[in-house]
Amino acid sequence: MSNGLKQDISIGHNLKCLRRKANLSQREASAQLEILGVPMTEDILAKIEQGRYSVRISVLLALKQIYGVTTFDTFFEGLQLVSNHS
Q1: Are the C-beta atoms of residues 7 and 70 closer than 8 Å to each other?
Q2: Residue 7 falls within a domain, yes or no?
Q3: CA 14 to CA 2: how far, in whole Å?
Q4: Does residue 61 form part of some domain?
Q5: Which domain holds residue 21?
Q6: What is the pTM assigned to this prediction?
């Protein structure tokens, strides 16, 4: 079910921190996503948090609501572009 897209920068660590701050387990967060109509399993959420699965925009929209964050900037805090140029 791979779409061939690979992440260049992972927001997984930030998503994991936000989930924990919201006092939710992966199971609880994935269940809330399902309630909002966003198909999600605990396994896929774990892979997203590990940076092994690309996160969809619909998931980010729902996580923003579930985790109670006011801005999408929270998902991207501390991330930087790394130049591959010598």
Answers
A1: no
A2: no
A3: 23
A4: yes
A5: 12-76
A6: 0.83
Structure tokens at 80: 């930087």
The rounded distance, in Å, linking the Cα atoms of 58 and 39 is 10
Structure token pair of residue 35: 């309630």
Q: For the beta carbon of residue 9, count every other beta carbon within 10 angstroms.
A: 11
Count of all residues that appear for the chain in the document? 86
CA distance 86 to 84: 7
Burial of 31 (C-beta count, 10 Å sphere; 0-12/13-18/19+): middle
Is residue 56 classed as helix, strand or coil in its secondary structure? coil
> Token match 């992440």: residue?
7
As for how many domains the chain has, the answer is: 1
pLDDT per position as a tens digit, 3-45: 555 667 789 999 999 999 999 999 999 999 999 999 999 999 9
What distance in Å separates the CA atoms of residue 79 and residue 81, rounded to the nearest whole number? 7
| Helices 26-35/57-67 angle, 10° precision | 110
